[in-house]
Structures are given as structure tokens and as C-alpha cells.
Amino acid sequence: MIPTPRDAAKVLVGKPLRVQKDTLNVASFVAQAALALRRGKPKRAFLLLGAASVAPKHPAASWLLQGAVTANDVRKKLF
User: Which of 13, 30, 40, 62 could form a disulfide with 55 if both were Cys (CB 3.0 to 4.6 A apart)?
Assistant: First the structure.
């Protein structure tokens, strides 16, 4: 039997880790916003911070916004 990440968490912590998707999504938005501010893109940073504030109550909207931002990045790199 191949061990899973959950098995590894049991060994390290003693029980399975319960990482909430909303918390991880908010952390991702905040990290991306910090990186955008550092690179001199304040509009993008504030858009991502707004998405981070919406993420806990409306996860579908935040995932949709994340997808739109990613699609825009891909569009800029390809064209």
C-alpha cells in the first residue's frame, strides 16, 4: 500500500491535518497581492486583496476571480 499525504500527516502530527480550502485560498490571494505590490502593480494588488476579503463568504466568486486573473496572465504571455 502506498502511503498518502494524510498518512504522513498522521505520523508527523498524530492526526490528519485539516486545512480549510477557504483559508488556503485567502492566503494565496494575499501572497499574490504582496508580490504584485512589490512588482509595482497596485491595481492588480488591490483586486487580489478584494478577492481575499470576499473569499471566506463566497468561495465560488473568489475561485471565479482567480480563474479570470490566471486566464488574463496566460493571455498576456501568449499574445
Answer: 62
C-alpha dist (Å) from residue 47 to 22, 65, 69: 17, 9, 9
Q: How far apart are CA 49 and CA 27, in angstroms?
A: 10
pTM for this structure? Answer: 0.66
Q: 61 is written with which cell numbers?
A: 466568486
Cα–Cα distance for residue pair 50/6, rounded to 1 Å: 32
Contact between 44 and 70 under an 8 Å Cβ cutoff? The reply is no
Q: What are the CA-CA distances from residue 42 to residues 9, 22, 24, 52 (Å)?
A: 38, 24, 22, 15
